[in-house]
Specification:
It is built from 4 helices and 3 strands. The chain has 113 residues and is of the alpha+beta class. Strands 1-2-3 form a 3-stranded mixed sheet, with helices on both faces.
C-alpha cells in the first residue's frame, strides 16, 4: 500500500516538531538523550502515535511521565503549525522494541558458559 504524500509530509513535520519540543520542554538527565524512533499517522489522519526512546534507559519512567504531562501542550503546538481542517491528536508512546534490542545485545550468549 502506498503512503500518501500528505501523510508523509505530516509524519515528517510531526517528527521534526517533536524533536524540537523535547529539546525545549523535557528536562533530560545529564548525559541522557531522547530519540523519536517512529511516527505513525492512522489512515483517517485523526491520530498520530509518536514512538520515543531514551538512553540510558534507567530514566524511562520519569521521561515518559513528563512527556505524557505535556501531550496537551504538544497538541496545541500541532494546532498552530498544521493547517488542516481536522487536526490529529498526538500520543507519546515508549518504543519498547528499541529496549528489547538493547536487552538482546547485552544478554549472555549460550556458548559463553
Amino acid at each position: 500500500m502506498r503512503v500518501s504524500r500528505r501523510k508523509e509530509r505530516m509524519t515528517s513535520l510531526v517528527r521534526d516538531e517533536v524533536a524540537r519540543f523535547i529539546e525545549r520542554h523535557a528536562a533530560l538527565p545529564q548525559g541522557a538523550f531522547a530519540t523519536v524512533t517512529h511516527v505513525a499517522v492512522n489512515d483517517a489522519e485523526s491520530q498520530v502515535k509518536v514512538f520515543l526512546s531514551l538512553f540510558p534507559a534507567e530514566h524511562i519512567g520519569a521521561f515518559m511521565r513528563e512527556m505524557h504531562a505535556v501531550e496537551s501542550q504538544f497538541n496545541a503546538r500541532l494546532k498552530e503549525i498544521l493547517r488542516t481542517k481536522k487536526l490529529p491528536v498526538a500520543k507519546f508512546i515508549f518504543d519498547n522494541e528499541w529496549l528489547k534490542s538493547v536487552e538482546l545485545e547485552n544478554a549472555p550468549k549460550k556458548d559463553e558458559n
